[in-house]
Design brief:
This protein is α+β, with helices and mostly antiparallel strands. Helices cover 29% and strands 25% of the residues. It folds into two domains: 2-38 and 77-123 and 172-245 and 410-469, FAD/NAD(P)-binding domain; 126-170 and 253-406. Helix 1 packs parallel to helix 7, helix 6 (134-146) packs across helix 11 (349-368) and helix 11 (349-368) runs antiparallel to helix 12 (387-398). The mean pLDDT is 94. It binds flavin-adenine dinucleotide.
């Protein structure tokens, strides 16, 4: 049987940082990843079907059951979500950290700024030098016109301005930062391999996986599970670890719209603007989304009368979202005989109201920026052209017809010192189970209300340092 000191499961931000720091400290590390390395050829086709199939789980559309269903998106490739995401960076807001300290007794939250700063250096967090994507500039102009707060969110990226004046954004994903460091330090990545179960045998862990339909077992002293907020609880439940696992999932559900302008706003389809708008309702954030042609075609499915116009309209359409930090929770269940988890989510009536209000605010901002028509992802909604159609569309949202999506998942195995409500301690150690750790989006105590990768990285960094401080 293959052997390692530590097996890390999942190569997203949580797993890559963990594996790199442990390998650099001299541990023999094997990182197991279900997905394959990213083929850069795929990325040339702007979020096309090939990219979705190869780099996303279930082609990017996994259903989450509930009164208003939510389609959630997960990366499945070497580097995890960091390879496919927008690169918008936030630290965990102070009030959220304080709430985690009070509610779950999370220790030493005041030390986190050092870890944020270290990760920011490692992945080159910096502001976009401009000029920004035109659709994003429109959002910022509209927000300023109605007095909302606009933030130019920094990215983990290197920037290069071409002779055409367009800024090329080279996102510093895990495959460009921590994973090469891990390999350099002697760590091994085993990709295309899905971990099925963890077994405790003779004081060691045996990680049972499947690679190309063949079994692969690896024996190790410690396991760090970093498979993301859906797959981590699924694997643990399948392995008989169940205390506070999978019961408190939180997502940031969002409504998307396409807004039509009289001028061109959509030139470079891989470009996503980094402006975000807040202060338009409690827990509501507005921002820009992917506006590539395949996305556009899907986004306009509610308006079949436009099917022949899509190509002509495309340069004039900007893609936007209104996203909330919800009260409601979801649940991840592992059913016998079913490899995929069953995920359900219960939005509260207040969450649904806030989504409807978020849509109204987004339309107000976009009309203030000069939009002429807005196409929301709300079944049965009219095309929005004025105040009356905004209200009709919001009423459809309140009635459960919003076609919600989510790309941020967290809190399915929350950390804390309160053993009755948390799954792991403040440093990712699974309560009551020796040498088993979680270090990914699952351990956040609740919705962070901002893009979560910055929070996940800082916590993974601090957990890895803590693990290294333990006796071997
Ligand atoms: C389209 C999109 C846009 C986003 N934009 C932003 C953004 O701008 N800013 C931001 O902060 N966040 C963004 N996010 C969210 C961010 O990408 C995630 O929060 C982050 O990647 C989660 O990190 P993680 O380590 O918890 O898990 P993941 O990144 O999900 O990594 C988990 C990895 O584990 C692997 N895995 C799962 N199960 C197994 C198994 N059983 N065996 C082996 N391997 C397994 C998966 O294939 C995956 O690669 C976005 C996400 C998406 C999908």
């Amino acid at each position: 049987m293959k052997r390692a000191d530590v097996v890390v499961i999942g190569s997203g931000p949580g797993g890559s940082i963990t594996a790199a720091l442990l390998a650099e400290a001299g541990r023999q590390v094997i990182l197991i990843e279900e997905g394959r390395p990213v083929n850069p050829e795929l990325l040339r086709y702007s979020y096309g079907v090939g990219e979705m199939r190869e780099l996303y789980r279930n082609g990017g559309l996994t259903p989450c059951l509930g009164a208003t269903p939510i389609a959630y998106v997960e990366g499945r490739c070497v580097g995890g979500g960091s390879e496919i995401n927008s690169g918008l960076y936030h630290r965990t807001p102070d009030d959220v950290l304080e709430q985690w300290r009070v509610d779950q007794g999370v220790l030493d939250v005041s030390a986190l700024p050092d870890f944020f700063a270290q990760c920011e250096r490692d992945i080159h967090v910096a502001s976009h030098p401009g000029p920004q994507a035109l659709a994003s500039v429109k959002l910022a102009e509209g927000a300023a016109a109605i007095g909302a707060t606009v933030t130019d969110v920094p990215l983990w990226a290197k920037f290069e301005t071409g002779t055409d004046g367009i800024v090329r954004v080279d996102k510093q994903s895990m495959a460009k930062t921590y994973l090469p460091r891990m390999i350099q330090a002697g760590g091994e990545i085993v990709s295309g391999t899905r971990v099925k179960q963890l077994r405790r045998m003779g004081g060691k862990w045996v990680v049972r996986s499947v690679q190309d339909r063949r079994s692969l077992d690896i024996e190790c002293d410690k396991v760090v599970v970093c498979a993301g907020a859906f797959q981590t609880p699924t694997l643990l439940l399948r392995s008989g670890v169940a205390r506070n696992i999978g019961r408190s999932l939180q997502l940031h559900p969002m409504i998307k719209v396409f807004a039509q302008f009289d001028t061109v706003v959509n030139q470079n389809w891989r470009e996503i603007g980094s402006h975000q708008v807040t202060n338009v309702g409690e827990g509501v954030t507005l921002g820009c989304s992917v506006g590539s042609r395949p996305y556009l075609a899907v986004g306009l499915l509610n308006y079949p009368e436009l099917v022949n116009e899509t190509a002509t309209l495309a340069p004039f359409l900007g893609a936007y979202y209104a996203c909330i930090s919800p009260e409601g929770h979801g649940r991840v269940r592992a059913l016998p005989g079913c490899d995929a988890p069953v995920v359900s989510y219960a939005l509260t009536p207040r969450d649904v109201d806030r989504l409807a209000d978020g849509l109204v605010s987004l339309c107000d901002v976009l009309f203030a920026a000069g939009a002429t028509r807005i196409f929301p992802s709300v079944a049965g909604s009219p095309i929005i052209t004025d105040g009356e159609s905004i209200q009709q569309s919001a009423a459809r949202v309140r009635a459960g017809f919003a076609e919600l999506t989510a790309v941020h998942a967290m809190a399915s195995c929350p950390m804390g010192e309160r053993i009755e409500t948390s799954a792991v301690d403040s440093f990712g150690r699974v309560h009551g189970v020796d040498n088993l750790y979680i270090s990914d989006g699952s351990i956040l105590c609740s919705s962070v209300g901002v893009n979560p990768q910055g929070s996940i990285m800082a916590l993974a960094y601090r957990n890895a340092i803590q693990l290294l401080g333990e006796s071997r």
